[in-house]
Amino acid sequence: MSSSPAPGNNRPVRGKAEPVPRPSILKDDTLEAVAEFIAEGKAKNIIVMSGAGISTAAGIPDFRSPGTGLYDALGKYNLPYPEAVFDISFFKDTPSPFYRLAKELFPGNFRPTLTHYFLPLLAKKKLLLRSYTQNIDMLERLTGIDEELLVEAHGSFATSKCIKCSLRSESDYVKRHIMNDQIPYCSKCGGLVKPEITFFGEDLPIRFGKLAQVDFKKCDLLIVLGTSLQVEPFNRLITRVPAKCPRLLINRDRAGEGMRMGFDFDDKWKHPVKRDALFLGNCDEGVRKLAQLCGWEDELQALYDEGHIQMKLAEEMEALALSENDKTKSTDNSKETTKKPEEAKEETKKEEAKETQVDMIKDELEEIIEKFETSTVISTTTTTTEEEAVKGEGSEVTKTIETDVILLSKA
Known about the structure:
Elements: H1 31-39, E1 46-50, H2 88-93, H3 96-105, H4 114-124, E2 128-133, H5 139-142, E3 150-152, E4 155-162, E5 168-169, H6 171-179, E6 193-197, H7 206-218, E7 221-225, E8 247-251, E9 276-280, H8 283-294, H9 297-336, H10 341-373, E10 382-383, E11 402-403
Parallel strand pairs: 1-2, 1-7, 2-3, 7-8, 8-9
Antiparallel strand pairs: 4-5, 4-6, 10-11
Helix pairs in contact: 1-8, 4-9, 9-10
């Protein structure tokens, strides 16, 4: 006798519903995908966020790299904790460590990297909405980028003011004191004068907050360069772009994955859309590759070459003028005083050494001018005039450089 089937056993089994595929803004998580997105004209309002990693190639250490980062090198300042050097409460009581560090970091000792010149390149392409930087080194400014396109989220050395009465001080006054291992004080109230760098415990610049509220809503491609994204509120800016805005991180290490709506390179959090790309490596390498993929590598290199040659030229002109001044003063002094034969002989040696130095500078300057005239630059015509006049008896140095420059092939 056969058994009857249990009720309901003949009902058809329903299969599990297929997951609805989520849209991908980029074809994958590579630089190639980002370059394709740009080439298709989908990126018209690019925002670049940058940190200390874009300046390491210039010789400025980043903050947190083990062994080489700035915070690891602060033991000589006897700080209670590394970040204290940028803590406003600690600074008010013990300002000297910051000023000693500022002497090492003060602008003028370093030049922009290839990555820095990516910013004016994007601006030239009319693709850059804004550049937001955590850096205080002012290297972005040295690229010639329009300062309206730049937001220095943590301030810079460009301006200084008293922490008590807020009176602004001349930059030269502050720099002179810092370079001479002195603490600058306010001429009005005697308070400490500090470069307008945002310390822990201070509010970020008003301009940062105002522009961030508007800019990130418009952003259609976010590029994050050389930052660990550990400092708030800067790090949370990556969460404020539209949900379908693609985001690219170029950095030595992964970053920004632990926060809500942060980067999701491994699709762990199943955000509504897939949109994040990652390049692990140094910034110059990643930026060069992206520029190459976009067909911009020659232009990027040209901007870098031209900028560095112009800075070198200005430095050499200044050195030449100083040397000529020293030579003139030495000649004047020798006429005014009668010296012993031994002193006169020593003075003659010094003058000959200075003349040799001047000749060396002149030779190097000529090489720079020749290189400048054949530099691969983007602009079609540039006229640069550098004049340094050194007044003295029969001594005047004037250099005028007029160059027509063209974009040359790097093939």
